[in-house]
Amino acid sequence: MGRSPCCEKEHTNKGAWTQEEDDRLINYIKAHGEGCWRSLPKAAGLLRCGKSCRLRWINYLRPDLKRGNFTDEEDELIINLHSLLGNKWSLIAARLPGRTDNEIKNYWNTHIKRKLHNRGIDPQTHKPLNSTTATASTATITTTSSNSNNKSSSNTKTTTKFQPESQNSLTRVIQVPEIVNGTSTSGEESNSSTSGITTEEVYPVELNLDLSLGLPVQPAQQQEVVNFQVSGNQNQGDCFCHNLGSQGKQICRCGGSMAASITTKYNLYRFYMP
DNA sequence: AAAGGCACCAACCGCACGTGC
DNA sequence: TGCACGTGCGGTTGGTGCCTT
Fold it and tell me: Is A195 left (phi over 0), alpha (psi -120 to 50) or beta?
């Protein structure tokens, strides 16, 4: 016997929500809180499927949602998190306050994919599109983004170098973001030894460790990496997955050995290998 | 001005996972 | 241990508005 349907489809509305339905849903959740989505429609007097109510609330009606365009910092953060997590939109959304997984997924498919293609990067693998043939040279991708909320304060430049694959693993030179005060940094895209806090390490796993971009902090609070280690340290503690909000079934494999750690002024990030 | 194409995004659908019995 | 249920996630679809011809 199969599972029962989540609702009686013949008695439910579909399609766009009306203002009245929105009001009913908002009022009910204000009065009773979230949860029990299956019974919510009936209790709230809505001819909707419980799943539909949940989606409408989470993606559109929640009061803490941030509306409006994505900032450059959010763009870069999404790209970095996607390179680390793949299509784990809920995990990525957990790192972007006020944004929903659905919103990020749509934004990825409509904007960022194209953006990465224009940069010559494969949006799925985050490797250069011609990586299979470019084995002798190092590709450098530099992005400069300005904080639209603080137009006059600072720019954040991120440089990622892709080096030719070694025998069994991809080695990538990591640089933490440089805080470039004031003027544009154009013209120094390939110069990796400019001023700012720069840490370079090579590690044998395909991780993008740029974590400070786009975090909801003011420029003056940009996180400086004060310690970066690649080790087999087995210290227990919150792994990166947990820092990202991973719970339960999700990708966290904390049982593995720690591959690297980054200490910032505000957080300790640990990376575990499966 | 009209038609077709395209981009965007809200919403739907099916599946997987966690939990309680 | 297995089943049913509730919930969450990711992929996909369809409606709408804008742009181009």
Answer: beta
A163 touches strand B (CB under 7 A): no
What are the b/e assignments for A6-18, b being 16+ CB within 10 Å?
ebeeeeeeeeebe
Cα–Cα dist A27/A200, whole Å: 53
Q: What does the block give as tokens for A210? A: 């740029």
| The overall pTM is greater than 0.70 | no
Predicted pLDDT at A22: 87
What percentage of chain A exceeds 70 in pLDDT?
43
Answer whether any strand B atom is within 7 A of the Cβ of A246. Answer: no
The string of DSSP letters for A25-92 reads HHHHHHHH-S--TTTHHHHHT--S-HHHHHHHIIIII-TTPPPSPPPHHHHHHHHHHHHHHSS-HHHH
Spatial contact of A113 and A123, defined as CB atoms under 8 Å apart: yes
A35 contact to strand C (CB, 7 A limit) = yes
* Chain B bases closer than 7 A to any CB of the protein: 7-14, 17-19
* pLDDT class of A2 with cuts at 50, 70, 90: very low
The structure tokens 């709230």 sit at: A44
Assigned token pair, A179: 């805080």
Helix (H, G, I), strand (E, B) or coil at A266: coil
A83 vs A80: CA distance, rounded Å: 5
Which pLDDT tens digit goes with each residue over A186-201?
A: 333 333 333 322 223 3
